[in-house]
Amino acid sequence: MNTSYQLDVDKIRRDFPTLKREVNSGASLVYLDNAATSLRPIQVMAQITRFYRDHNSNIHRGVHTLSVEATEMFENIRSKVGKFINAEDSREVIFTRGTTESINLVVNSWGRKFLKPNDEVIISELEHHSNIVPWQMLRDSIGIKLKYIPMLDNGHLDMDVAESMINSKTKIVSITAVSNALGTIIPIEKVISLAKKQGALVLVDCAQSVPHLKVDVQSLGADFMAFSAHKMLGPTGVGVLWGKFDILDSMDPFLGGGDMILTVNMDHSTWAEIPSKFEAGTPNIGGVIGFGAAIDYLNDIGMENIRAHEVDLTDYALQKMIDVPGITIFGPNLAKERGGVISFALENVHPHDIGQILDDNGVAVRAGHHCAQPVMNALGVPATVRASFYIYNTREDIDALVNGLSVTTDLFGVKS
Ligand code: 7TS
Question: How far apart are CA 285 and CA 51, in angstroms?
Fold first, then answer.
């Protein structure tokens, strides 16, 4: 491959046995649904197996050898995640079930404690439902005002409106770093600076950024960040909430139960320090330990190389796809303004039919509203087809996508 960055895709592909799958009697799998979830390399699966085989135990409670080992392995991953995002203190890393739970934690533990009726919370029209619905539930429960920064036709946010909308009544801006539906990279540094001028907090939904771009929480200056392990080679059911120490420390617990308490009496209980305060019950220990192997894998490749590879693929895909008859490609025109996500439609062909025909040809994409219905409403479509890339994808995968689209346009008689 003629590229200036260091990424040995052939070697990487050998670590992902799922890529050897055939689907629909003989079509080689081309996996382009990475925004939904990535594949997992053998190193992650081996690490999960190693935990259950050799160290299986609950954490933070036993004095026996296995429990001490499991606790140490689990806590080492907290430090590893902290380093990966450059957190100042690994206690700022809270393990959750995923981005959805991380956002719900902030909404309930920070929002219910610190927000009052008529306080303003600002999100955007580009959010995934998990950064809309919890805030709507809080609005309906305590009477906050929820405002949306609108999306422009080109898939970018209307930053002029953002500038006037974020004002002294704003208490938190909760915003995605990269749109899962369109791939738009949001200028979060600018949003953070607007919020900080007004003394508002910022939560960044990094579900689509941390897996693909270098993110440094200290230089970014947000207050909370949420992301999921399963979109970055790790297991499902593991996510992270990072928050500034003093803010997390000031918040009430989210869930009550074992491991999050200091003392329990019949009439009252007291809470453990962070991070335990927010990690009630037995967590996904094997999953967190597997997540550690995923971070090692990404670190070995280098996040800058991953980003360069995705820009190259996205640029190639945009150039190839534009020639498909009847295609509309949604979102920003330039690869550098996008994550590795391309959402599109074909004239007079339902997105689900496109998804089905692509699947018949081995190409896995997502067709639907991508849990971002306000984006679909803004585009005036019920659904789109979305192809999304990761480290193991190649230009040949994009050729397979484009071939599958020609089969579709031939079948439906779409003309340019
Ligand atoms: N925020 C964004 C920007 C997302 O893309 C997703 C998942 C979430 C939050 C929720 O993450 P979870 O791990 O808690 O489910 N996005 C998608 C998607 O685009 N297709 O399937 C899941």
Answer: 9
The overall average pLDDT reported for the chain is: 97
The residue nearest atom 4 of ligand 1, judged by CA position, is 207
End-to-end, the C-alpha distance of the chain in Å comes to 31
**Ligand 1 nearest atom to the CA of residue 388, by list position:** 19
- With contact defined as beta carbons under 8 Å apart, do 48 and 403 qualify? no
Q: How confident is the model at residue 3 (pLDDT cuts 50, 70, 90)?
A: low
**C-beta separation of 220 from 188 below 8 A:** yes
Q: How many of the other CB atoms lie within 10 Å of CB of 412?
A: 17
Report field, pTM of the whole predicted structure over 0.90 = yes
Tell how strand 269-271 and strand 30-31 pair up.
unpaired
For the CA of 127, the nearest atom of ligand 1: 3
Q: Point out the least confidently predicted range of 19-28, 80-89, 166-175, 191-200.
A: 19-28
To 5 degrees, how large is the angle CA 225–CA 227–CA 230?
170
Axis-axis angle for helices 65-84, 285-301 (nearest 10): 40
180 lines ligand 1 (CB under 6 A): yes
Check pocket membership of 176 for ligand 1, CB cut-off 6 A.
Answer: yes
Which amino acid belongs to residue 343? S
**Is 35 a pocket residue for ligand 1 (Cβ < 6 Å)?**
yes
Q: Which residues contact 8 (CB under 8 A, 6 or more apart)?
A: none
